Amino acid sequence: MEATLCIPRIERSTQLEYVRAIFNKMNMGIINRISEIPLRVDASYKRVMIQMTINMENDKGSYIVSRIRSGQNVKIVHNGPEYWKVVMGRVNVVDSPDRTTKAF
């Protein structure tokens, strides 16, 4: 299943490669593209959009899809107690001119 996931607020110093590594470690699908968009209200944070093909046969993939489809968020722990809140992304935001994109 194709999906765009969004981490709405993440520290600006967080590298896209780190985000990619965390999602790959979960083994829930294939990342097609990652984009970052600076937050206008707080220069020390950014938004990260992740376009991916989620494997619905994987427990983690199907769990994330079911939570997001029902309008809830998913918390992904990446560093001990620290986590990212992940929500369904809006596709038009990924194509924003303010973004930096890396295809994987």
Question: Notable features of this structure?
Answer:
alpha+beta, Alpha-Beta Plaits, 104 residues
Question: Brief description of this entry?
Answer:
This protein is an alpha+beta fold. It has helices at 16-26, 59-69, 91-94; strands at residues 2-11, 29-38, 45-54, 74-79, 82-88, 100-103. The chain has one domain (2-103): Alpha-Beta Plaits.
Description:
By secondary structure, the protein is of the alpha+beta class. The protein is 25% helix and 45% strand. It contains three helices and six strands. It has a six-stranded antiparallel beta sheet with strand order 4-5-1-3-2-6.
Q: Reading side by side through the largest sheet, how are the strands ordered? A: 4-5-1-3-2-6
The top-level CATH class is Alpha Beta
Largest sheet: 6 strands, antiparallel
Q: Briefly note the structural class of the backbone.
A: alpha+beta
The average pLDDT is 87
Principal-axis shape equals globular
Proportion of residues in β-strands: over 45%
Helix content: 25-40%
Number of structural units classed as domains: 1
* End-to-end gap: 17 Å
Stretches where pLDDT is under 50 for at least 5 consecutive residues are 92-97
If classified by CATH, what would the architecture be?
A: 2-Layer Sandwich
How many beta strands in the DSSP annotation?
6
Radius of gyration, whole Å: 13 Å
CATH topology: Alpha-Beta Plaits
Helical segment count: 3
- In N-to-C order, the SSE pattern is EHEEHEEHE
